[in-house]
Write a sequence for this structure.
């Protein structure tokens, strides 16, 4: 959609993005969201578990977030932050592929008479419960560039 805008508009937006990246900050006005509660049911009055809150943010914030996310991904990949076993939310890393590799490992261990222990943990609503300050400290200790860390923190 941005590609359809006049060059003067996109140049201005590009200038703003570059300024915020240089200043290592996320615009305060873009941190304000309008919440809409969606009913997961087709009919009837939902309970809290049967609703999905959606936050509506500034349109261009998504573009800026993609730029920041790309930088975070590049840093994480270059520094081998995410283990190979992590398959969710990574390109070309599908869960069925991971499941097949686990089955292959179990099969190999069975053939070699090696006991196998597997633990699967699924944290329900894990992203809703992230301790943000601990995450920032962890990213700092992992060596995330300070400018990028400041943007993530802001």
């Amino acid at each position: 959609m941005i590609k359809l805008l006049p060059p003067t508009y996109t140049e201005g937006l590009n200038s703003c993005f570059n300024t915020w990246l240089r200043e290592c900050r996320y615009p305060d006005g873009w941190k304000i969201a309008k919440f809409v509660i969606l009913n997961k049911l087709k009919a009837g009055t939902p309970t809290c578990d049967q609703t999905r809150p959606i936050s509506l943010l500034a349109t261009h914030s998504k573009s800026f977030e993609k730029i920041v996310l790309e930088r975070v991904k590049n840093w994480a990949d270059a520094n081998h932050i995410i283990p190979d076993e992590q398959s969710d939310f990574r390109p070309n890393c599908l869960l069925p592929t991971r499941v097949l590799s686990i089955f292959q490992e179990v099969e190999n261990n069975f053939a070699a008479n090696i006991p196998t222990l597997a633990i699967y943990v699924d944290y329900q609503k894990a992203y809703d419960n992230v301790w943000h300050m601990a995450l920032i400290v962890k990213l700092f200790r992992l060596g995330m560039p300070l400018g990028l860390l400041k943007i993530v923190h802001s």
